[in-house]
Amino acid sequence: MSATLRNDLLLRALLREPTPRRPIWLMRQAGRYLPEYRATRSRAGGFLEMCTNPEIACEITLQPVNRFPLDAAILFSDILTIPHAMNLGLEFEAGEGPNFERPVRTSADIARLPVPDPGEELKYVIDAVALVRRELRGRVPLIGFAGSPWTVATYMVEGGGSKTFGQIKRMMYEAPRDLHRLLEVLAKSTILYLNAQIAAGAQAVMVFDTWGGVLTPAQYEEFSLRYMAQVVDALTRNADGRRVPNIVFTKGGGAWLKKISGVGCDAVGVDWTTDLATARAQVDGRVALQGNLDPSALFAPPEVLRAETLRVLESYGAGAGHVFNLGHGITPDVDPERVALLVETVQAYQVPPA
Question: Whole-model pTM above 0.90?
Answer without folding.
Answer: yes
